[in-house]
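Notebook, p. 212. Picked up where the previous page left off. The plan for this session was modest: take the two constructs that came back from the sequencing core last week, fold each one, and keep the raw output in the notebook itself so nobody has to go hunting through shared drives later. Recording the first one now, exactly as returned: residue sequence, then the structure token string.
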Amino acid sequence: MNNFTLALQLFWEFFKIGLFAVGGGPATLPYLVNLSEKTGWFSMEELTNMIAVSESTPGPLGINMATYVGIETLGPFGGIISTLGLVLPSIIIICIIAAFFAKVSENRYVKAAFGSIRPAVTAIITIAISGICKVTLFNIADDGTVTPYTHLIIFAVLVLILLQIKPIKKIHPVLFFVFGAIVGIIFKF
């Protein structure tokens, strides 16, 4: 496949993700899992690494992921193309909505539609997160056998419990990344 064809495919795949990933960056995860399986541009393990990098760098998750995949696939030009593909549908939709929003914002059908979209997006994100947890917390061999990374599961549960304590909730998220990196280096997770 030549670079022009690959650039068009990158743009088109991320355009579709941008068009249908309602709910922001985390909503792109199921589409990225599908994209991984469909194109082979990155593995599930690479996807989890991309998520870690995207979450620890400034900017929205979806845009960081699109840029990362584009750069890994086609270099800096690929990063620009995939990011443009991801954001263009939002720009188009926002312009259309802005023109009509004042007229339809109080419409009961519009309110009902948005009310129904929220739980659907939540379910889609939950499914994607469960797939990512399978990769990060369990060693799934090619023959289908599953070996849990017990120490990582304990660490994840411990962090979830700690995050329920009110003073800890106020700690800046960057400190959690730093803490996680230090723990990973010390214990070689």
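Okay, moving on. Second construct, recorded in the same format:
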Amino acid sequence: MSKILIIEDEEAIADLEKDYLELSGFEVEIENRGDTGLERALQEDFDLLILDLMLPEVDGFEICREVRSHKNTPIIMVSAKKDDIDKIRGLGLGADDYMTKPFSPSELVARVKAHLARYERLVGSGMPENDIIEIRGIKIDKTARRVWVNGEEKTFTTKEFDLLTFLAQNPNRVFTKDELFREIWDMESIGDIATVTVHIKKIREKIEMNTAKPQYIETIWGVGYRFKV
């Protein structure tokens, strides 16, 4: 049974989320403060975090930053703040998804299932050994989920690794942002493609010598992106 931690200071919302998730077969814990939520997220083994942004003591951004520096646990950020800058910042810190309140509990359950299913497939033991992609100085070890650029290992979040690997496995093919969102996040974009843009930006910062003139991930204006070989 997958174990989920909800870090949410509005108790009514946290209880509603917990009820729906437990009805779907998940084990759920709740923390209403940022500091205690961060402590549990780091010290205990949870399969996924549902993280509010506005929390007492420690906010969601700092929790995301700290957790991501130690673990690849999927993180879904939730917030009543609709500004794109908050979404971009949260995704840039390593969150896997961002939901704006109010949202339906059934949508939250669907996204939780999608993230857990993808994460379990990617880290499962069924992946072939030594499955490596090498392209012009970039080495991607799909088995160990590690990346080297010109011999230097780089750290990638779960979704950054998934996106880079998918593009590298499909070189010279142009994908729209909607296609990439559906492929990597296992859900419809629902008009929200900022997630893809932010992740492409973070990947470029790690693999490109000059992000203004990318040599690997090329923007096809008005269409999407492609990995050049």
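Notes on construct two before I forget. The chain is about 40% helix and 20% strand.
Flagging for discussion at group meeting.
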